[in-house]
Task: structure prediction
Amino acid sequence: EAGVVQSPRYKIIEKKQPVAFWCNPISGHNTLYWYLQNLGQGPELLIRYENEEAVDDSQLPKDRFSAERLKGVDSTLKIQPAELGDSAVYLCASSLWRGLNNEQFFGPGTRLTVL
Amino acid sequence: LAKTTQPISMDSYEGQEVNITCSHNNIATNDYITWYQQFPSQGPRFIIQGYKTKVTNEVASLFIPADRKSSTLSLPRVSLSDTAVYYCLVGDESRGGGGADGLTFGKGTHLIIQP
Result:
């Protein structure tokens, strides 16, 4: 069974440029998560989707970050414009349903470097 | 908010049993305790989850005392490949659905296994 797929794996851009990350969750998983992970820190939740609905986006900086999950399957996270402080690893995860007692399956992440 | 506290780092040797303790004094009645493992350049991976007493799987054991204010992840006979960051999470489905509380990873415990 394929795991969570993310692309690209690495991205280097200059500040003020836009960038987008793509995630394809495990087939049949209704819940999709986007996390940000800074060096030496644990993942921090940005947004969670239940099917195509964003049910928790309180941690998403909405002035520059946006996300969508059309048709409740794959998802895109966008940053526009990127800032130096956005350099981090962006992780996507999925689970059958919401809730901590449902195992989350993580993708390998996209490492973003903003110059 | 069920905040967790873990040691920042631990060292051990191959073949030893390693115990990582997580404190969660404000754990709620419905909260589960979940541990994830993360290797460099990879997303976290589910290890084990429990509610009370003891849970064991092919990878680890989780010990939870009666008051549930702490939990201990036990890794039997560790090898070099167990070097990773281990995260303790506490939360439940309702909080996971209503907010980001149950999805807080914290800084984790950096376990280093030496030959």
In short: Chain A touches chain B at residues 4, 33, 40-45, 48, 55-56, 58-59, 91, 93, 98-109 (CB under 8 Å).
